[in-house]
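User: Design a sequence. Structure:
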């Protein structure tokens, strides 16, 4: 099991941006890039994981993310996505290994209490009942 604390206000994953170069009225080049704020926060997460002694786990992984934030915050899924992406190659080889993921938002009163706490462990899922055309098993 790996436990990581990332101090400070979390930065939710932002959508990729597209830069376009024009020559007159003709587009000559376009490329997508990750916004600077997202890249910097992902690096902060990676460094915190390495400082906590993280090494890539093999097999299925469970990821639990507790977000402690004051006031308005980004969508819970974008916060989970930035953490999951940042831990690629650090806590697991690829985020496709995450088969059990959870993001919980906690409200705090003071800005100095803002942080993200992450727990990564090997997944221990029992076989889930299969769905058929009639719906979930009861």
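Assistant: Done.
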């Amino acid at each position: 099991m790996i436990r990581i604390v990332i101090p400070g206000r979390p930065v939710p994953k932002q959508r990729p941006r597209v830069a376009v170069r024009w020559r007159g009225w003709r587009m000559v080049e376009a490329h997508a890039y990750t916004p600077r704020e997202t890249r910097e926060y992902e690096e902060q997460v990676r460094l915190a994981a390495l400082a906590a002694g993280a090494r890539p786990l093999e097999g299925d992984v469970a990821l639990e993310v507790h977000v402690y934030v004051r006031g308005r915050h980004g969508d819970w899924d974008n916060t989970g996505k930035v953490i999951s992406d940042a831990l690629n190659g650090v806590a697991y080889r690829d985020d496709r290994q995450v088969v059990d993921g959870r993001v919980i938002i906690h409200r705090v009163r003071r800005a100095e209490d803002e942080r993200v706490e992450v727990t990564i462990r090997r997944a221990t899922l029992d076989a889930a009942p299969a769905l058929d055309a009639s719906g979930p098993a009861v």
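The chain is about 20% helix and 35% strand. Strands lie at 2-7, 17-23, 26-33, 61-69, 98-107, 115-122.
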